[in-house]
Prior knowledge:
The complex is a heterodimer of chains A (317) and B (377). With 317 residues, chain A is an alpha/beta fold. Chain A contains ten helices and 13 strands. In chain A, the strands form three sheets. A five-stranded mixed β-sheet of chain A has the order 3-2-1-4-8. Chain A has a five-stranded mixed β-sheet with strand order 11-10-9-12-13, with helices on one face. In chain A, helix 5 crosses helix 6. The longest helix of chain A is centred in the C-terminal third of the chain and has 24 residues, at 218-241. Chain A is globular and about 55 Å long. Chain A starts with 6 loop residues before the first strand and ends with a helix. In chain A, 51% of the residues are buried. The model of chain A has no long low-confidence stretch (mean pLDDT 92). The model of chain B has no long low-confidence stretch (mean pLDDT 93). Chain B has a five-stranded mixed β-sheet, sandwiched between helices. Chain B is globular. Chain B has 13 helices and 18 strands. With 377 residues, chain B is an alpha+beta fold. In chain B, helix 6 (186-197) packs across helix 13 (360-374) and helix 9 (275-283) crosses helix 10. Chain A binds chain B through residues 131-132, 144, 146, 148, 153-163, 165-167, 170, 177, 179, 233, 236-238, 240-246, 271, 274-275, 277-278, 281, 284, 310, 313-314, 317, and chain B through 1, 3-4, 203-205, 217, 219, 221-222, 226-236, 238-240, 248-249, 251, 305-307, 309-314, 339-342, 345, 348.
Amino acid sequence: xxxxxxxxxxxxxxxxxxxxxxxxxxxxxxxxxxxxxxxxxxxxxxxxxxxxxxxxxxxxxxxxxxxxxxxxxxxxxxxxxxxxxxxxxxxxxxxxxxxxxxxxxxxxxxxxxxxxxxxxxxxxxxxxxxxxxxxxxxxxxxxxxxxxxxxxxxxxxxxxxxxxxxxxxxxxxxxxxxxxxxxxxxxxxxxxxxxxxxxxxxxxxxxxxxxxxxxxxxxxxxxxxxxxxxxxxxxxxxxxxxxxxxxxxxxxxxxxxxxxxxxxxxxxxxxxxxxxxxxxxxxxxxxxxxxxxxxxxxxxxxxxxxxxxxxxxxxxx
Amino acid sequence: xxxxxxxxxxxxxxxxxxxxxxxxxxxxxxxxxxxxxxxxxxxxxxxxxxxxxxxxxxxxxxxxxxxxxxxxxxxxxxxxxxxxxxxxxxxxxxxxxxxxxxxxxxxxxxxxxxxxxxxxxxxxxxxxxxxxxxxxxxxxxxxxxxxxxxxxxxxxxxxxxxxxxxxxxxxxxxxxxxxxxxxxxxxxxxxxxxxxxxxxxxxxxxxxxxxxxxxxxxxxxxxxxxxxxxxxxxxxxxxxxxxxxxxxxxxxxxxxxxxxxxxxxxxxxxxxxxxxxxxxxxxxxxxxxxxxxxxxxxxxxxxxxxxxxxxxxxxxxxxxxxxxxxxxxxxxxxxxxxxxxxxxxxxxxxxxxxxxxxxxxxxxxxxxxxxxxxxxx
Lengths: 317, 377
């Protein structure tokens, strides 16, 4: 093929967006980050196009072969329509076709958490044989991205992985969605900070709650213990339901690294000791954190762009 | 990327044509070409080969719309038979099944508490009887059995009730019968049976919850069985739903499996209570037993809610003995699910009882073999 072989991964966030340009061997050629313009959909599109063009220039490329982009919201991957992205002020906006026209290359969209899952999957696939993976992103909310047999799993309505609004405590705290006791009200960043404030610790962010817990503060330990127990239960539930072994965590709340992961691992060890058969299914679980310097969303975008090109050439044969 | 060899392309196209005919029931060669984007001559050649193989037959012409009416093609459902086995429960069941999921012959052998080598011998007997009854050789043998199964290798890793451990069932059957063999977990097979032969839906994802002494599910994702990394997908019976008085975790199976549930019912109604009387008493509205069943519905509904939330499943089907509690039980499950996940998502979901009854595992076994050997379904 003589067409340009630079692939672009774009991670569109509610405050900033990141772009990554790689060559056909997936070597990184350039990367850039810029604030996401939110004034209007036109400004957003212009800003994203400028960001991609700048990165392409830096990579010495005139044009991209394909673009894969992650959007924080609900998208229709087939049409490139953003059905709803509250943080980007988008409502039924054809971002995919607009990006494609402006950049002169096919542009594929995916939900940002799912795209991060895809990026995390390919990162680990370089180290070992892998079919399935679940990525759990925890920040202001919590959601999962599910990769099955090497492909992003969307569910019937494109809502697969919305674990944040599974009710885990009946009569729990009220959630922004209107329900009570959603997982999000217990384990997400704002929820941790809110619980700490209620216990007399006005904290700046979730990281501080984890630090207090590690330092032995009883109230913080209780808050983190409860969050870890619910996360471990969700992991156990997923392990028994779909029997997936590889779990990767990312997002602001997980930056506390060991302080975040260790209590979850301890809870899972407890489950294993108590329930031998379930334990046998859960025993080989592997939990890991995304490296802080790895942009899973942008890498997922690059992989999605690549998968799109492969699919196109496959159809042409 | 690897270029497809001509043979691979031909096999692919042949399967595509067969699938198109199967799904349409009756279709003309011209319509096959339109549906598959293959050329007319290619379709004609492939159709002729499928007719030579006995899989496809010509049926009557379409109602005339003027001009020469085209001949229609149909899959001969009787062209291939599959021997299907269900090794769960107190008896081993087997059936000869056609390509449309019709049961042509059925053999049931009481298994009692047979385990190990004896259970294996009974499996052979069952197959021998089915082969004796048939006038021609089957396309393959497909077995659904309880336990943890490695489906690709056809090894029963562990089936506790049958006391099978690391049993290479596929290889043993293949050596004995010289036929294609498939081995699957019975709940997995049941899910595929429901997906294939249950009421048609637009969705490509389905969960079937099999209820009895044990509780287990089969998961169909993107139109195919999903086994998971350790082939243990669907083991929802092992989910911890509550903590007991002694602090030990109680699993879903120990909470609402038929044995556990009957035990609880006996604490209320006395040690003489049997299962049919339990069903009857609940149907008549005995308040404390009805409350017990509602509580069971709550536990099942909560688990199903999570399936809906996490996997975005819109078809949840329940089979087995708990369905004997009827519509009010089903409604209670749905209401419990509504309390545990976003209403918008639950309302898009159908929670229903399977109508395929005792044959669910057998039908799933047939579906697996038809998928593997012919690429249809």
